[in-house]
């Protein structure tokens, strides 16, 4: 599975919209790429929120 598909899977999981077919495909291999991509996505989201708050308060 390519990095693009993993990123799409992580974004879909963060929003809670994922088809059963895609979920089954993702559980075929190692979970570590998804865990890493998920951690990076959450970190990016938190940094985006911090940036927005700083811009609003400035």
Largest sheet: none
Rg estimate, integer Å: 14 Å
Count of β-strands: 0
Terminal residue distance: 43 Å
The helix content, as a percent range, equals over 70%
Provide the succession of SSEs. HHH
Unreliable stretches, pLDDT < 50, 5 or more residues? none
Which word captures the global form?
elongated
> What is the number of helices?
3
Strand content: under 5%
Overview of the molecule:
The chain is an all-alpha fold. Helices cover 79% and strands 0% of the residues. The protein is built from three helices and no strands. It has helices at residues 3-15, 20-26, 32-57. α1 (3-15) crosses α3 (32-57). The longest helix has 26 residues, at 32-57. The radius of gyration is 14 Å and the shape is elongated. The model has no long low-confidence stretch (mean pLDDT 85).
List the SSEs and their pairings.
Blueprint: H1 3-15, H2 20-26, H3 32-57
Helix pairs in contact: 1-3
List keywords for this structure.
mainly alpha; single chain; 3 helices; 58 residues; elongated
Question: How is this structure best summarized?
Answer:
The protein is mostly helical and 58 residues long. Helix content is 79%, strand content 0%.
